[in-house]
Amino acid sequence: MDPVGEGPGEARGDARGGGVAVARKRALSVLFGLLIAATGVGAPAYGAAPDPARASLTRTTGLADDTVNPRSGDRLLRHPTTASRPGGFAAAGAIGLYDVVVVGIPTAAGPTPATQSTSASMIEALDAGYSSATGGKFRFRLQRFVTAPFNGGAQCDFNVVDSAARSAAGPLTTTAGALDVLLVGVTAQESCSYAGMASVGAAGMHINGYWDSTNVVDVKVLGHETGHNLGLRHANSLSASPLSDKASWVSGEYEDTSDVMGVGIAVPSHLRFNGAHLRELGLVPAGELGVVSSQTVTIKPLYGGGGIRVVLLPTNNVNAIELDYRPAVGDDSDLVGSGRNYPGAGVSLRSIRAYGKSSDWDPAGSGGDTFSLITNGGSGYQSGFTLTDGVAYSLPDGSTATVVSEDPVVGAVVQITRPTDASAPTATSDPFSYDATNCTPSLCTPTSFPQGVAMSVGFATPADNRWVSEVRVEDNGVSIRSMTAVPGVSAPLTYGQFQWVPTGGSHRFVLVAIDSAGNRTTLRSADFVVLSDNPPVVAVRDVRLKVGAVAYSRRGSIPVLRAPSLVSVATSDDHASTCPSPYVVVSGTRALARWGYQTVGRQLPFGRSPVSVYARDCANKFRSAATSVVLASRDAVGRSAVRSRGWSSLPVSSTGRRLARVGKPGASLTWRANARSVGVVMRFGPTCTRVRVYVDGVYRYSVNTRASKYSYRVIWAQSWTARGRHMVTLRHAGSSGRYIDVDRLLYV
Description:
Number of strands: 42
Radius of gyration: 40 Å
Mean pLDDT: 77
């Protein structure tokens, strides 16, 4: 699990980024005073005033890529409304209770500040802060406290601390009523570049010494890292000159003073979230989210309710402008007023990533059809600032937003103007060229679409200057998939894949994209053909002998011979490239083959053998072919062999057979057989010599049978297209006193 969540502060000492950046304790106390002077923040509400050095937070500009996904294999933290939540929006109203396991880890920096007592107090403070900020929807309780053994590893390495915490904690299991478990490793304050570090979307965090429940900063460090575990990213500021020129936008990381995921970790005094994060946590119901066009809208206080609390202005498929209202009253009384270049009291405007959850395309949860999430390469997906009343702010798409009036009870009246959207969604390439799990019509050959077999087809949605609100995929004019997207609730329609069961014949996919203004674009794929799926074609083409070692065995007193052979088969199918491989069975022994023409080597037993080939295609259609083959022989010492002078009979006890032996150069032995494939078996050994082979009176082959050990081999084999009568002659071609030991002629 890589570290995420680094905040503003000194130059980072950890190249991977981290939690809320801080100086070493008591090193930069003057900076906190400067921050309070700049923001007008009063004393914190959690008991005693914070140690100034502990809250040394400076403002920085620019986004840092300091948030990463959990490690491969790490389970995403469960959310109140979904089994796992990779960063999408939750439905409003659910309550999530989380167990917390705290592990105190003593290090070279000293004993851990975490004890059973301090841990109970810290989790109670965390629970109180989140309960207040979320209307009681997110709650936390200490499940247990564990002390880990002394750890001498690199304590500014998140993986080291997290591994030590997991080892000491053991299995993380929930107790009754809890949705999931958070794991917190606490060490003494090290000279790291962060106060806290956490994984985004999964359990696991390191608290670097900030473990005092009476100190607001310590509680908010824990609250900030908990937000990361819940999937939240950083809250940033936005400055621009002018706002209508998007190229001039500069995002100041962590500079949202109204949110604990930004500078709000130090101010205001209460743990709070902005509208974008409340919406992501599922705390803004659909009836309190306004997606507006040109109109005057009243935005209710974000922590008041009773009407529209968040206004959304979609600007394209991915991004949107979001407005919320935070009057400087009650718990927000210490928010900075309007006119700043970071969010504070008043109406705040934010540029946000408008992503949703992956189940939007496939609400039934079958897992086949999905829309990809829009992920963010930076550390945060939102940047904002507070509007000055009476000023018309022009946005890059030509929209304007003007705060007409503010009332902490009635709400803020905001005049929105948006230009007429006359532009239809556009695409610069084939929408079906996006690669899915299998392939796309434009990229795959027709035979890659086997008839009747479900496969994934990918596509990309055309871009739009506002919002693609509906996507429909048609096949030959018939709608086969469709989805409607609601800005702020559903995932934006960007790209995805769906399951399709092809039917034979010609096809043309058409993608219809409709934006929020009703403008329509129709794009089509290249025409393609799905071949009708016929059963496989199979055949046994040939069975013949080959050169190679011979296996002898004995069954009682009867010797059994197995000779090397080649079995050739032919298989084909409409969609062979995507189907299981065929296979060949010779006398009960199975061997895989490839589609097409394939030769498989087997040991052919003496006598009659069944030979079969089997194939099953992607549509589960099956076909087989079978034949039988008889392996016969002519003994070298029997009547069928015609020998010249000088031959003798040599018994071999290991095989129960007798060999024909001769040591005279030029001596010969001849067989005649009606066959289509023949092979000669001879014994190799230290007393043996060279032999020449003649077929039908013509010299064919010469081999030296001398070897260090005795063995039996088919020294030569030949096959013909049809059965016929053939004559095979062996002739001694070595020196006198050395032998050729002939076993037999094999033929099929």
